[in-house]
Each structure stands twice: as structure tokens, then as C-alpha cells.
Design brief:
14-stranded antiparallel β-sheet; mainly beta; single chain
Length: 192
């Protein structure tokens, strides 16, 4: 995927929740900084999740600061990756995440772009991409096993078969030329 990214992007969240996500993108220390926020209503409860995610030049997540706010209060978590698959959460090591190179926010359509960029798969190739998964409701972290298979190109963007067995989920994800998600069936569609 081409490393040239737009300065902003936005998604409308569908089906699983009603909401909107806005993202601002900037180059930083040879990598990228993603500052965004999702505001949504899910199961009748309103919430926001804001994030600042730093990735290095190889698209490995190095740092993420995530803040959620809901009727139950505000929470913040700081997640730091060393780029080799070891993580600290609020300063404490979390060995359950060993081997993960990406962060995946339940509240964000952006984060599916991170492994797609990092893996650089050619059509027909597949790879496991376990991620440090952050839940929207309580910012709890867990390991999420994922698999990306790049499908044959049909147009200017790219498509991937995405699998997350723990959610019994398999979906075809569509990306634009810059490698940002265009459509995640049942979750989000790009609007800007």
C-alpha cells in the first residue's frame, strides 16, 4: 500500500453501533501519528473513545493513549509496544500480548489499516496478525488472533479476507489507495 496518507479521514459506524469516527493524520519521527475520536450509541448507551496512536516506519504500533467517556465515567489507558512484540500497559508488562505488533481498538475503523500496511501482502498471500485488542466499554486489553488474506486486486484499492476466530467473524475488508479502510461490513463505511 502506498504510504501517502490523507490529512483526515472519517467513518460512519453501522449496525453494531450508531456513530461517527473522525481521524487526523500526521507524519511523526519517520512513522505516523493518528489522532481520532469515535462518538457512538451502542445498546442504548452513549460513549466516546478518543485515541492517539503512534506507529513507526514499519507500521508497528509503538504507543497508544486511549480515553473513553460514558455515563459510568472517564477512563484512560496508555499502551506501549517495543516494536518486537512486547507490551506495557500503564507502565506494567502484559505478557499475554507477546507477539502482537498492532493495536486494534474495538471503537475504531482505522486500526484495521495498521496490519494491512505492516504486512505488505501480495495478492493471494496470508498472514496471522495477532493484536492488542482494546474494548470500547472499559478499555480492557486482550489478545485478539486475526488473519489477513490479500485478495486479487479489482480496482485502485485493495481487498482482504479478514478472520477473527474468537468473534466467529469473517469479512471482506475494502481499502482505498492509501491503505485506509473503505468498508467493514456490519461495522463502518468511509465517508470522508
Amino acid at each position: 500500500m502506498a504510504p501517502r496518507l490523507p490529512e483526515t479521514a472519517a467513518w460512519r459506524h453501522l449496525d453494531a453501533r450508531e456513530g461517527f469516527e473522525v481521524l487526523f493524520i500526521a507524519g511523526r519521527n519517520g512513522g505516523w501519528r493518528f489522532d481520532g475520536c469515535t462518538a457512538a450509541v451502542e445498546n442504548g448507551a452513549a460513549w466516546t473513545v478518543s485515541y492517539a496512536i503512534d506507529v513507526d516506519a514499519s507500521w508497528r504500533t509503538r504507543r497508544a493513549r486511549i480515553t473513553s467517556q460514558s455515563a459510568s465515567g472517564e477512563r484512560t489507558v496508555e499502551v506501549v509496544g517495543n516494536g518486537c512484540g512486547h507490551w506495557h500497559v500503564d507502565g506494567q508488562p502484559l505478557p499475554d500480548l507477546d507477539g502482537c505488533l498492532d493495536i486494534d481498538l474495538e471503537s475504531s475503523a482505522l486500526t484495521n489499516a495498521l496490519p494491512a500496511h505492516r504486512l505488505g501482502l501480495v495478492p493471494g498471500a496470508a498472514a496471522q496478525a495477532p493484536a492488542a485488542y482494546v474494548r470500547a466499554a472499559d478499555l480492557g486489553l486482550e489478545r485478539l488472533e486475526q488473519r489477513y488474506t490479500r485478495l486479487a486486486d479489482s480496482g485502485p484499492g485493495q481487498r482482504y479476507d479478514y478472520e477473527a476466530p474468537s468473534f466467529d467473524l469473517r469479512s471482506e475488508l475494502a481499502y482505498d489507495e492509501a491503505g485506509l479502510l473503505l468498508a467493514y461490513p456490519g461495522l463502518a463505511i468511509r465517508v470522508g
